[in-house]
Amino acid sequence: FNAITARAVRKVYATPSGAVEAVAEASFSIARGDFVSILGPSGCGKSTLMLMVAGLEPATSGAITLDGLPVNGPRTSAGMMFQDPTLLPWRSVLENVLFPVSMCRPVMPDDRARAEQLLRMVDLWHFRERRPRELSGGMRQRVALARALINDPRILLMDEPFSALDAITRDEMGLALARIWDTTRKTAIFITHSIREAIFLSDRILVMGRRPSTIVEDIRVPFARP
Ligand code: ADP
Ligand code: ADP
């Protein structure tokens, strides 16, 4: 099975001012362990497509499967990152990373060990007892990355995670993500407006068009990262 398969996926939002077709008809498949970027103009449906893959937004028609099985609502095994890391301000960095675990069951010593290991990977182990407001923007996004990986999800979904960061921090985050992704090899979807970032990080780039909002190009990035 492919890790992710979308077949003729369409999404229409009902709004007070009428129906909005957010995704016209998208079909693609992503092989296990691939890192795929999605590029496209604002409002073309990238976030909607990602939310459907995550099982957080039902498709109006079409089908999405993960490892051959239909996406399973909010129980879908996806780690997610957004532009805003939304950390809990009154909890430590370590507790923020453990938060998805604490939502499902009591936190065990093994969970703490894993959270500490992830914090080492994102270079924040020394900051594990700090509060989010003590950290820089790039550091907060690295906490969000560790949190996205804590439940060992099958896929990693990232919606413009670096867009709010300055250019230099953004480049550092790209390097950190590339390094982490090289060790975890999670199947990943990464929404970005930066073609440079997409080329640097991805095995493949899917380009969405505005109207109809569907995938208009599927580009295999022909060179490996250094
Ligand atoms: P992108 O991520 O490419 O900017 P989105 O998926 O956020 O695009 O949005 C696609 C279209 O769907 C836009 O026209 C947007 O206004 C609309 N849209 C997104 N979310 C909703 C929603 N929850 N309700 C109604 N319309 C929405
Ligand atoms: P990032 O690239 O993650 O945004 P910065 O460039 O802001 O991080 O900071 C570089 C280094 O400076 C960090 O890795 C950290 O060691 C230290 N640092 C940054 N902000 C703080 C802070 N508020 N308190 C303590 N150390 C900090």
Automatic annotation (TrEMBL):
Q: Name one GO molecular function term.
A: ATP binding
Using the record's annotation, list all stretches that form the ABC transporter domain: 4-226
The keyword Hydrolase is assigned to this record: no
Q: Which UniProt keywords apply?
A: ATP-binding, Nucleotide-binding, Transport
User: What family does this belong to?
Assistant: Belongs to the ABC transporter superfamily.
For this entry, the protein name equals: ABC transporter ATP-binding protein
* Source organism phylogeny: Bacteria, Pseudomonadati, Pseudomonadota, Alphaproteobacteria, Hyphomicrobiales
Parent-record interval covered: 17 to 242 of 271
